[in-house]
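Moderator note: this is an archived Q&A kept for reference. The question asked for a predicted structure of one protein chain; the sequence and the answer are reproduced below.
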Amino acid sequence: MRFPALAVCLCIGPALYAQPVLHKFPSVLDGQPRFELEYEPEPMASPKAAPGKPWPFDRKITARVLTEQGPRTRFNVYIEQGLPKSELDRGVLAARFLLRLYDFNVSWLRLDHSPLYGGGSIDVYLCASGQPGGEHQFTVDTTATDSSRRPRKSSVIFIYRIGELHDQLEFARELAHEYGHATLPPFRIDGGPEEWVSGDVGERLYLNWIQDLLLSEAADSADVLSVTPSQLAAYANKRVLPAMEKVALEGPNWSLIKTGGQEGYSSFLGLVSWCAQVLPRKVLSRALVLAPNQNAISFRTSLSEAVDESPGFRPTIPQTYKGRGVWIPTGSAKIAGGAVLQQRENWTKVTGADELWVAPSASRGS
């Protein structure tokens, strides 16, 4: 099902600047009315200060999820004072994009924002200043208070030099990356490009799912910052598929992940990307949250546990691997259909993807 483009929020003309804008729109995953955006087109009389930053922010877009208990704010997007009025349009699109990522988390990964930070709301600052790139912080916002009137613990995302960020794919990638840091279970890999790998995991998961929605025409360009399927395919070919294919054809390299460094970091990203391809999302979600600690090697245990919990599933093998031997996580489960070529450390190399079924072990729970 396709939904109308964000006509109200994108057509910001003189008439609309005279009054606040409230726009409601459905989920692209199930079509249910679930979200709303609200913003004042004119600058706030009292600009907002960002935690730890000297810059004032005078425009705000509030993004909410609609629940049976009423609207719940999930993002506040702030725009730095002095940026041109056109950046308000980009802020609106960024808020809508973030709600799509939130929908992935809640509907597919069963992960909501922690109420410990901002009552479940993430503050996003689009900055004219700073070093190009993005950053996520769990911090204290001394300009806001919690229900006990104490400075509020906050989860904040900064996107710097927004006026110079003209590549919409890079804008989407930055937001997806920092949102991964903000919401996905944290995994650490020693000596990697970043201390925590959750940002890189997030951008790979979210951008892949966005590409699927665009190709199926379930999402509109307004949902995804006008990023195109061809841009997302180029991103995947460069950043995702090489490491993922290595896991698909050779199996996971746990010793490399344990050793860490650039190669271990890349290997872990390939592992999670491949699991996201072949596993039901419920199993992937359980594997992420069941990890006993924050070391990436703990995903080895939680992945097997998640597969063993499953009532059974048919792996989703991409068409490019049909007829080839690929490795899939099977835990202690049994394989029905297809052909088993090799087994190793709770993974199985198989062919015949169309007939495969991963069935629970008969001894489970005995």
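Archived answer notes: The radius of gyration is 22 Å.
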